[in-house]
Every structure is written in C-alpha cells, then in structure tokens.
Amino acid sequence: GGDRFAHNSVEYQFRAAYVFYDSGATWTGGEEPSVRHSVGAGLRAGAFSLALAFALRDGRVGPVVMLGMNY
Known about the structure:
By secondary structure, the chain is mainly β. It contains no helices and 5 strands. Strand 1 and strand 2 form a beta hairpin. The model has no long low-confidence stretch (mean pLDDT about 95).
C-alpha cells in the first residue's frame, strides 16, 4: 500500500489473441517504490476475455487466470 501509485501496460492484439506486459508501483512519500511486473496472453470473444498472466516476483513466476467482461 501507499499514498502514491503508477501503472503501465503494453498490449499487442492480433484478431482475438493478445499478449501484454504490465507493471506498477505503490509507495508513500519519501520511501522507495514497490514495483511489480507481469506478462501474459489471452483471448477475446465479443465482450468476454480470458487471460493467463504470470506475476514476476523475486525470481519466481506465479500464474494468475483472469476472466472478464467489457460492458
């Protein structure tokens, strides 16, 4: 947590498939930011999206499955 944040996302989409890279940081004034990174790939069909992302932390990779809907 913190009282400041920054977020960045880069995505490439070809037809229904996409790949992405996300990064973000939180911090409190006067402290070093806590930065997180993730990469992933997914599919979109109409308003629905299914993605598999991998959080990159301290040399470890943790998978995350995301299912969503745009409205």
